[in-house]
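Batch manifest, entry 17 of 40.
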Amino acid sequence: MTSAFDDLSPQQQALVDQWLPSAIVEKNHSWGLVSTTVLEVTHAGSRFIVKAGGEDDHHLQRELHAHHHWLEPWTSRGRAPTLVHASADAKLLVTRYLPGDLVLGSAHADEPSTYRQAGDLLALLHAQTVVTDDDYERRENEKSLGWLGQPHRIAATTVQRLQAEIAAWPTPPATLVPTHGDWQPRNWLSCDDVVSVIDFGRAAMRPAFTDFARLAAQDFRRDPKLEAAFLDGYGTDPREKAAWYRNRVREAIGTTAWAYRVGDEPFEDQGHRMIAEAFSSKSR
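Output type: structure tokens
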């Protein structure tokens, strides 16, 4: 093992040795704010991604579930990485390396064609199965109230308004589909102008419009042409006004409190802006 594997647990290191003996780390793609380690490695002339969760990780199980149940519409087209090895117990997986550069920070992040492809890919994911959940809205309200009960820098008067609003919200049955959970250019790759998808650690059954949330707070906000292209690719707009507002508020709360917890001040600032903009949209 090279020293680049030191962030993996002994169990994880042993499994990588078993699955990819003498693998060489080419690049560390770990984000740094969470306990997940992501390594690009070579073995026997092929390239792989090794992804390992830390002790407090809750995302590898979701990622494995997505690989086993939801990614075939993408992997069959070469638009998502293929799972090669996995251990849920060790919080470890290995996928084949998917070529491409992150869309985030590249010229592709400003190209409507990128968003049209992303909309088309998302529609494939969402179309696989649909369920009705009578308790989804109540659970999400409880999560938001839980965030508000943790340390954060949301103003006390704003917290009071948020708590009062959430307490008054209806909790109708929700239509859920498989969602990515972090659908934005940070998790898209572009290779020869073809968009692919990575990182399924937040994949879960949710309303389809929840996968619009990160884009609406960032990319759609700065360029309406990107939103129009995305909707063209997706085929419809599932954002019913009242449910979309509730989701915007929940996303804003979670963004602000989570970013404060991990020390990501720019993302925390975005969360405060999201709260203000959600309130503003309701008054219009």
